[in-house]
Amino acid sequence: MKSLWSDTDAQNTVESYAPQGVNADLALRVYTTRLLGGDPALVLHGGGNTSVKTAVTDLSGADTDVLCVKGSGWDMATIEPPGLPAVRLEGLRVLEDRDALSDEDMVALQRQNLIDPKAPNPSIETLLHAFLPHRFVDHTHANAIVTLTDQPDGEDICRDLFGERAVVVPWVIPGFELAKFCSDAWRAHSGIEGLILSMHGIFTFGETARDAYELMIDMVSMAEARLDDGARPFLQVKLPADVASVAQVAPIIRGAIAVPANDARDTQRFILHHRTGDTIRHYVDGADLGDYGTRGPITPDHVLRTKRLHLVVPPPGIGDLDGFAENLRGAVDTYVADYRAWFEANNARVGGDKTMLDPMPRVVLVPGVGLFAAGKSAGDAAAAADLAEATAEVVTVAEAYGRFTPLDGEALFDIEYWSLEQAKLNKTSEKPLQRRIVAVTGGAGGIGLETARAFKAEGAEVALIDLPGEALEQAASDTGAFAAAGDVTETGSLEAAFNAIAETFGGLDILVSNAGAAWQGDIGDVDEEVMRTSFELNFWGHQRAAQAAVRIMQAQGTGGALIFNVTKQAVNPGPGLGPYGIPKAATMALMRQYALEYGAHGITSNAVNADRIRSGLLTGDMIASRSQARGLSEQDYMGGNLLHREVEARDVARAFVHLALSRATTGAVLTVDGGNVAAMMR
Ligand SMILES: [Zn+2]
Fold first, then answer.
1. What is the pLDDT of residue 338?
2. pLDDT at 228
3. Which listed site, 94, 101, 517, 629, has its alpha carbon 20 to 30 Å from 419?
């Protein structure tokens, strides 16, 4: 590990923040915090924090000594000055005289001492920073330190390695007690340059930003030098010749770890993130994965994202996916029963007032395929995957060095069921479609874009399916959706798009089958080729998408929703529009057939009958010519309905969302046309 310190970059950072009134101390604090945060071997997802002791002018105009310490919710790699809120130093230091302080009181006192009352909560490790006298204090959860301290004699190894330079502190839960422990350690050995926190990480400190940072790099490098990071210690398992693909396995896992409910619509799903690579495969393909892979987390705070134990399952063969699914469900049942027993035993120990969290695993290790991590959003799942990948790296090196021996038992319960975490439970409400995955065909068009926005607003993960190219990429980047390139008129191409969605999010809950285009011709002499081309898109495109969707939904076994975009022509045909309306009428029948055959699987099937929407099908030129032909203004033409208002793409998008949320509606058509008696369903 090399120091990335650059005098030029440091100076540039100071100069760039000076106009905003940020002093040099804080600017340099931002600079080295980012250097530390940018290295995943040092810091992952909240696993670290930094501080500087400086002076600021408070709201009353007085100069005040403060601790600027990392605030919760900020990522060290991208931190800005507001991510290091200033806390009155004196208000924190007086707490050192206390014998005990609850986490709730500690958080309240930290907030009470904030210079800016709107600032984020200062880190849970704030008091540790405050009690040390050094101006710059750096803290990371460096993999190499965790690897060494996860050995049976880890503390001795570190004492031997760092000698007089650091004090080794045993595991103590972060908060007031750990802060006291560390400040006592420093008082007893005031020449030290750092603290090694067993199974947790490392603190280094100095008078300048550069000193504290370079001590961190130096001491972590010493730990790395003890280890062999090219190690490949695991005997590999023999895999089946036909290992299943990520797209085949992911929906089965996603269904198996969904938390069941009485009404399938209330099933609590997860978004999955798949991860693989040389180190991960060596780890998950190890013959003894069931041993080293299930001893516990490399550092206790992982339990908040990954639970105490990862789930290990046998390798899936393509020829026996049903057998894999059955084994997996059995493994999940055992995991849940063990979790419940673990919770009950520990809850009794602490007084019985904790609320049990969902018992599902967050990391599933699949030989031959890699690891899957689960979260309540794609971002959460990716964060859990980062921790799981770090676990594979650390355990591999730890097992090559000696024996991976993590903390287990009560300490892990105390972290997962931390009072501050429990207090968040009732405050965080999820959006109605959070944890759901929706695919939208014709995703790059006007209705597709509005549909992506509408589903995103309800919390869903959105995948846009459309022909590969600039329009799709642009639509995805405009809406924050995933671009799944595929052609609904080509079975192989469309399947590839659905596979990409399953690989990215773990499965699918909602299909908005929206791709379409209009063809015209008098029915008595229209070219057969025109009819066939229209059928290919306006009927077969829907059937292909629906087939691919129900295949994934059935692998999950948690229901789903199919929503088809049909047209007024399917209900109320117009002259010359047969080539468009007839396949759409067939699609309406298709919708009903899916409702009939998949209702028992909890899959609803409905349609939206939209009319006269400005889009690729009804362009500005067409609107101009049609309104002119009828002697109407464009406004009167577009608003020629019972409500006298133009129907917009976002009205259609809202109807899709409505049907996705609807619990007891299947086989129905929802009309979105502003009111047209001739097109009313009967
Ligand atoms: Zn920490």
1. 96
2. 80
3. 94
**Distance (Å) from CA 19 to ligand 1 centroid:** 33
Residue whose entry in the numeric block shows the structure tokens 């972290």? 415
Among 27, 205, 22, smallest CA distance to 131 is for: 205
Q: How many whole angstroms from 125 Cα to the centroid of ligand 1?
A: 7
Counting as low any pLDDT under 70, the low residues of the chain are 264, 425-426
CATH number (3.40.50.1980, 3.40.190.10, 3.40.225.10, 3.40.50.2000) of 7-226 reads 3.40.225.10
Strand order in the sheet with 482-485: 482-485, 461-466, 437-441, 510-513, 560-567, 603-610, 669-672
Which pLDDT value is given to residue 425?
64
300-359 pLDDT per residue, tens: 989 999 999 999 999 999 999 999 999 999 999 999 999 999 999 999 999 999 999 999
CATH classification number, 246-424, choose in 3.30.160.340, 3.30.450.40, 3.30.2290.10, 3.40.225.10: 3.40.225.10
**202 Cα–ligand 1 center, Å:** 8
Q: How far does the centroid of ligand 1 lie from the alpha carbon of residue 107, in Å? A: 16
Q: What angle do CA 476, 479, 480 make, to 5 degrees?
A: 75
Provide the residue ranges of all domains of the chain, joining segments of one domain with +: 7-226, 246-424, 437-679
CA gap 203, 48 in Å, rounded = 9
What is the Cα gyration radius of the chain? Answer: 30
β-bridge pairing 166-169 and 194-197: parallel
Asked if domains 7-226 and 246-424 share a fold, the reply is yes
Q: What CATH number does the domain located at 437-679 have? A: 3.40.50.720
**Catalytic center residues:** 580
